[in-house]
Amino acid sequence: MKVGVLFGGKSGEHEVSLASARTVIAALEQAGYQTVPIGISPEGRWLTSGNPMARLTSGESHANGVYDESNPSHALTPFVPMEERLPTVDLIFPVLHGPFGEDGTVQGLLEMAGLPYVGDGVLASAAGMDKITSKMLFGAAGIPQVAYRPLNRHQWQKHREEHLDEIETAFVYPLFVKPANLGSSVGISKVRNRRQLAEAVDLACAYDRRVLVEMGVEKAREIEVSVLGNNEPIASIPGEIVPGNEFYDYDAKYSDGRSQLLIPALLQPAQVDAVRDLAVRAFRALDCAGLARVDFLLAGDGTLYLSELNTMPGFTRHSMYPKLWEASGVPLPELVRRLVELALERHADRRRNRISRTLI
Question: For residue 2, is pLDDT > 90?
Fold first, then answer.
């Protein structure tokens, strides 16, 4: 089977995607699959010829791609030089993080093309990427979360002081401010006063038109669970992250190497059961498929709060998702094999849907 591995992308998590893709490609090949690398440059050009990974790593992105978004006249029509034609593949493994990859856009393209692909569908990807929308769905499912408030960039820029007053009336510091649609902790700030709050919202607004302000949970422990499956998802053993910085920001995840991953997390048996159950409930609340990593905050009084669900978690050497499954008895080659099988299962299930009113 030929598995097209899609990586790079236009988001701020481009470099993380490259690192994840290297791990996934090696695991797929170890599992016996033939891999076909497909890169997407930061400008949105699709690269298939030569060595796409090397081309993106070296910064080469000037070649014409499958969709050349730098040229508006070709933005919605295929512009495919012979050397960049997409090769024939049986399935796509989209190792893309953040907007234009993890948010349902690429998933919609693959649905229209009729290609099986690993991971969540359009709805779950879009809802999971948007922290505000996902929180609304988790709330409807009765899953505990910290108090939060959404902000709109336009309204924030028009009524800054009024919004600051309302937030300070409703919440107490510390607070976390996040872009609604971004991952890897890009654009996230922890704030302890009004000046920091205003600066943090300005920063988050640089990344997205919608912003999330959340109550902080002091001295909270960060617990993560990996979920795998389609209609009958299963949860891994929980792990715990002890951030090297004040919270688990981008540098703590990928750069400084001071954060600790505790696998398994030091929890009571009842807490393990509770966090695994909530992870599966969150997975089902978004109608996820294939995989997700579900993150929690454990308060000092033992209360669990769902923090977020990541529909395409990292697969780098630092990443919790594959590490948790390895500790649960599923090594990385077996994990990617299961993900491929789940993708084919989901694709076959979708093909059972009627697309016309004609009875056959």
Answer: yes
